[in-house]
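A reminder before we start the practical. When you read a complex entry, don't treat the lines as separate problems. The point of joint prediction is that each chain is placed relative to the others, so the output describes one connected object in space. Small molecules and nucleic acid strands, if listed, are placed in the same frame. In the example below there are two entries. Take a minute to note the order of the lines before looking further.
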Amino acid sequence: MAQPSSSLAIEASELRKSYPGARGNPRIQALDSVSFAAPAGTIFGLLGPNGAGKSTSVKILSTLSRPDSGGATIAGIDVLRHPDRVRKNIGFVAQKAVADPMDTGRENLVLAGRLQGMTARSAKARAADLLGRFALADAADRLVKTYSGGMARKLDVAIGLMNHPQVLFLDEPTTGLDPEARAGMWAELETMSRAEQMTVLLTTHYLEEADRLANNLAIVDHGRIVVTGTPDELKNGLHGDAVFVELAPDTDLQAALGVLSRVDGLAEVIVDGRTLRGRAAVGATALPRVLGALDDASLRVASATVARPSLDDVYLKHTGHAFAVAGAPTAVESESAS
Amino acid sequence: MITALNQTGLLTGRQLRAFLRMPSYLVINLIQPIIWLLLFGALFKSVVDIPGFSGGSNYLEFLTPGIVMMMALFGSAWAGTSYIQDMDRGVMDRFLTSPTSRGGLIVANMLYQAVLTVIQTLVVLGVAWLAGARFGGGIVGLLVLLLSAMLLTFVFAGLSNAIALLARQQTALIAISQVLAFPLMFLSSAIMDTKLSPKWVQDVALYNPFEWSVIAGRDALQSSPDWATIWAHLGLLAALVVVMTWLATRAFRAYQRSV
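Here is the predicted structure of the whole assembly.
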């Protein structure tokens, strides 16, 4: 493999792409100057709600689609000038199932390997290896249409791995899976990324997924990258803990906002529904002051919580709207574990 | 080139496996030609008695190559269905992001359709023989009939694939099978000697690829075929196959622009 001197596995620069709008409507700007870079051997997460531009980015980088302007390289190869060479070095797992339901798991894998140019013998050996690794050996010779959602998705990932790709694209690998299957897939992906020498571009609208799997992250919103960094960098950039105060019904939100803005050590106070959110260096010491100030002003509180910073907070800070509001089925309470 | 041929073989194999795994589909494919042959055979039995009918004295013998081509036409009009299913899933996008030859994808589907056509043709011929039809063309005649049916299949499978890639909807294929296939069938000598049809039908039939295949196939089954006519019509069909394959392969670009 001719590995270029650059150790970047994926490099996207100023990608723009628009699609024709529905009848009479203006064109939809799916990507509005998207640039990011993923170092070789890492998992790079593109995090954002549906319609943010994640899939469009993946389609361009995997040579399926072409940008209106901008460029990209995969393992140092230009995706626009040498799509054929890029295709030999990537695995692609679309948002939709990539396995043929009328073939068995093994047939799907062998066909994928042979289309990549592997010999029948090496394709069979690789297929058997992957079927074992993804715990699909017992189902290997059953038609894929009989697989459960979790099994089918694991097979999809295995198909993407057949040709030992340098870069694997995983477009929302766990969307539609039940929580148990999702947890299983995360464990598989963690094991896989250790076992295979490769770079993974993972798109997701699950914050927990990005937090757990990605070494580096880019948050995408409305066709733009709003912020990039490691999950820890992004969370540490928030300086401290999140403080949530839910006000009782009929309490004056503006008065409460005024009170909290004057509390010492509490910053970035905003209103989100009936909840006020703020940020404090140490949440535990700020909370009594917050509650005291509200009590002094006779403003009644329904509940109050302190949480370690989560990617949800990062998202909120950089996009101005909460992630859950943007359409992802992610509950805020599950974010405090990290 | 070797790679593309290899890939074509692998992809044709995939479609044949799926076909063999749907026994009901197999049965429908075998019963359909029998029904057409026997129904039309009974319905139009006495057209051979019409003064001026130039297709011989046994209608079943006249009809058989027509039904063979009808089966090929109607079957291949649906060829794009399997790619629409692949597009509805992520299967097509996965092929397109791998080093799979675009031409190989199209040709594999054409070959798969041609295998179905060959099976149906043999069934039609078998049933016609059991019903008393006899053909003087021998084994060469049979092979030329098969060649003609396969070329027709390639033409319409190519068209069907191109439309599937451009429209990405099953309804578009319903449109070609209804709006295109039926008129092509009736504007030909498949079930009726066009010498008994109005002049305009005869004129239109001259430019009808379906009619080319019927003429070549029917003539090949005669005991003294007119080889010049046969090769001329097969040549026209072959030229159209090249055009359709090119068109369908080009349609991938349009598809990739739209995803």
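Discuss with your neighbour: Residues 179-195 of chain A form the longest helix (17 residues). What might explain this?
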